[in-house]
Amino acid sequence: MSKLNTKIKLYLEANSKVYINEKSNYLVRNDSDGNGDYLYSWNVNGLAQPTAEQIASYESAGNTAETLAGVLNKRKKEYPSITDQLDKIYHDGVDEWKKVIKKVKDDNPKG
What is the CA radius of gyration of the chain? Predict the structure, then answer.
């Protein structure tokens, strides 16, 4: 199940609005009462606050976005540092560097 924030960001993008940050556009709260997160306030100029049904319609896209974000974060952790990458290129050439990067990408496919 995708996070409410993810679905709201997708709703904004689908309606040609730019996500600035949660406090500028909207506020999600969780009262720790077992009901989970909910949209507490909405401050997006020119776009009506989404209904629960509109937000729910982004569940599948939200799952996809969160899965992709997880893969990209894992790749980011596994890539060598920029310093090490440049050193690899300098000492071994671009083709050897590409092999290192390709392995990280192959080990962590987008989908």
Answer: 20
